[in-house]
Amino acid sequence: MMINMYKIIQDTINGPIKIDGIYNDIIDSPYFQRLRYIKQLGMCYLVFPGANHTRFEHSIGTMFMAMEISNSLKIDGEKLRLAALLHDIGHPPLSHGIEDVFYDLYKIKHEDLTLKIIKGEKPYDDSSIPDILKKYGYNPEEIGKMAIGKSKKNILLSNIISGPIDVDEIDYLRRDAFFCGVTMGNIDYKRIFNTIKIEENKIVGEEKSIVNIESAIITRILMFNSVYFHKTCRIAQKMFGYAYYNNDDADINDLKLNDFELINKLLNGKSKDLIKNILKRNLYKIVYNNYYSSENYIEIKNKLSKFNKYDYISDIIPPLYFSGRDRVKNDIGVYYNGKKYRIDKISHIVKSLQRDVEKRKLIISAENNIYNDVKNSI
């Protein structure tokens, strides 16, 4: 008699999750285990002490969300669960914390790395993921495209991984809010999953789903405003970016490291003093905090041009790239009075949030030794 080997993972957010077969093999693989040592929110634990959760548990939670939505929509969930489990396997150290720095230097995003690991392409040709997928009869490229939300063959499943209502976001919003100790992450995902349907490979909400979809959009904006774009989190992460830029031993293979390995590398290099200050929470101090305009930004940058570019930080919050429907995710279709609308056309709450996102702050912070000089220059 063949014994089905499985394990139970006790997830903080979702409770016990049963893992067996291919899922067990993937979770036990080296690149997936690496996610245990990559914090979900980068340096945000310096502001929110509980934010020590990782990409490892988020990936498992996203897989669980994929199972829940596939059961509600009565679709085949096996490929969806695999893509959900693997969707973040390519994250570099510190998650999104210094991803812009890595992109500036190496012109590659974490989605590109995810696809390379799943397909076993250089420099990830040592990945065991493609062999695991093939062993169970799956095409690595097909699963990889779905995992990054770019599959033309499985459009619906890609949209469920990355779309207006997606399993990735529902897990990270609930999980991040819990570990950060904020109260806005109570998304009623079961109600959403049970009041949506599929039309033309897209998720569409029924009329009774509108209030819950509004709640998810509100949660997203509030989490960005209060956690992801928290000014002190941004300062710590930008300081880390400075440390990496100033590192005399930077290499594209650093993308394969975990948080601890990268920190240790920088502690033993040219940037060690800056890294020590970050770890001791001896951060740059804010010298200017006011509403952003392009004219104001240029004027202040000119005034600070005499300083070394690593002595101060100029930050626009929310960043300029964070705008439009794809950022607020207000383009989901919903039915209202028998007709289908984009939700921002019928929801005053969503319209207001769109306007709120466009209100930006310009924040200047400076290294302690030149704090007064920078302040006086502005």
Number of continuous helical runs? 19
The averaged pLDDT comes out at 94
Question: Overall 3D geometry?
Answer: globular
CATH superfamily of the domain at 6-229: Hypothetical protein af1432
Report the span from N to C terminus: 77 Å
Share of residues in helices: 40-55%
Radius of gyration: 22 Å
CATH architecture of the domain at 6-229: Orthogonal Bundle
**How large a portion of the residues is in β-strands, by DSSP E?**
5-15%
The biggest sheet, with number of strands, parallel, antiparallel or mixed sense and barrel status, is: 4 strands, mixed
The beta-strand count equals 9
* Biggest sheet: strand arrangement: 3-4-7-8
How would you describe the overall organization of this protein?
The chain has a four-stranded mixed β-sheet with strand order 3-4-7-8. The chain is globular. The chain is 48% helix and 12% strand. The protein contains 19 helices and nine strands. It has a domain at 6-229: Hypothetical protein af1432 (Orthogonal Bundle), CATH 1.10.3210. The protein has 378 residues and is an alpha+beta fold. The mean pLDDT is 94.
Using brief descriptors, characterize the structure shown.
378 residues, alpha+beta, Hypothetical protein af1432, four-stranded mixed sheet, three-stranded antiparallel sheet, 19 helices
Briefly, what is this?
The protein has 378 residues and is α+β, with helices and mostly antiparallel strands. It has helices spanning 21-27, 30-33, 55-73, 78-86, 99-106, 110-119, 129-135, 140-147, 155-161, 167-180, 189-194, 210-228, 231-245, 259-267, 272-279, 294-303, 325-328, 348-357, 371-377, and strands at 6-11, 15-20, 196-199, 202-205, 285-291, 312-317, 333-336, 339-342, 361-366.
